[in-house]
Amino acid sequence: xxxxxxxxxxxxxxxxxxxxxxxxxxxxxxFSEKRPLGLxxxxxxxxLEGEALPNIVDQxxxxxxxxxxxxxxxxxxxxxxxxxxxxFSKLPQHHRILWNDGPALRAxxxxxxxxxxxxxxxxxxxxxxxxxxxMLASNxxxxxxxxxxxxxxxxxxxxxxxxxxxxxxxxxxxxxxxYYSRIAEGKxxxxxxxxxxxxxxxxxxxxxxxxxxxxxxxxxxxxxxxEFSFRKDxxxxxxxxxxxxxxxxxxxxxxRNNSTNRLCQVDIADIYDHKHQDLSAxxxxxxxxxxxxxxxxALFRKLATxxxxxxxxxxxxxxxxYFRIALDLIETYHNDAIMNGLKLDVHSEExxxxxxxxxxxxxxxxxLENPMEAPFIPSWNRVISAMPxxxxxxxxxxxxxxxxxx
Length: 406
Prior knowledge:
- The protein is an alpha/beta fold.
- The protein has 14 helices and ten strands.
- Helix 2 links the parallel strand 2 (37-44) and strand 3 (66-74).
- Helix 7 packs antiparallel against helix 8, helix 9 (246-257) runs parallel beside helix 10 (287-305) and helix 10 crosses helix 12 (346-369).
- It is globular.
- The termini are far apart.
- InterPro entries: Nucleotide-diphossugar_trans (IPR029044).
């Protein structure tokens, strides 16, 4: 049971009463009459064959308030796209699948790449970006939720709580971030958030002072959660990273574009478990190792835009400060785990911190070596300015795939 304490500079909406989901869904149906509600599902084809997504689709068939579901499908050939059409056909809501590897969307993507206004890297960021574009093109939804497709503990209450803050017309929130505890199989999970993001933010505070941005980022209880919701009005201007810095980048963009009283976070699940990434201690091109580098660079880039100067000595100080704070937090997490009858391997926690400390330096070196790096995908406003009919062409590409193969 969560408490009602408000910390930091954005609103936290708790789960205080275990309100019945049917009661929330009834209200959401009423909200949807004035403010149509939509959902984005960025998915790999492999997730259709896993244990999580079939249950998610079954849960969504019971959701009465969604006006539209947009599925971004990555790494799928024609046969797999055809299978995906059948897989999602049980959804009673209006839905469309973006076949990101299909010839229609690839042709449009190639034109945008030639103009320098398309994502250059494959991955979740690119998938989400095209889904956002389709949402703008379809113009069916005013408030939109987004969540991952690998949540093995998914229940439809998660979606109801996630979208409620931006759906309720009496609330003024433009963006809402989901949070939850990361507990599964008697263990405390969420290593990157616990052991990298939190101590890194607090070390940056020690180096640069209590900046509003750092206070804002440290307010989020689970900043790396892949679940958030937003009003459609925020979509045109948002620039998102195409790498593992997606969640940090989205939070940074919301801070840049909105007053903090228009942003909130909400408790969406008691138990949350999903696909776990390998630590990849010996390979900084994949797993949690690459993730930690991308996340660190995302934070450094944001501080640089605020006029903060970095050099090699700065990053050495950040690393040393981070290392001490992170090691102290391991004891805190260990005690918390024991108090709750959970397991936490201190040795593996310290190994992760050692790797993250090294990767903070790697991220810093990369930042200094390539100051002209453009990690953000252009905003849809810029793309529309360069290609005025892009949304119509995107919609037509998706509809033609659907008409041809459905």
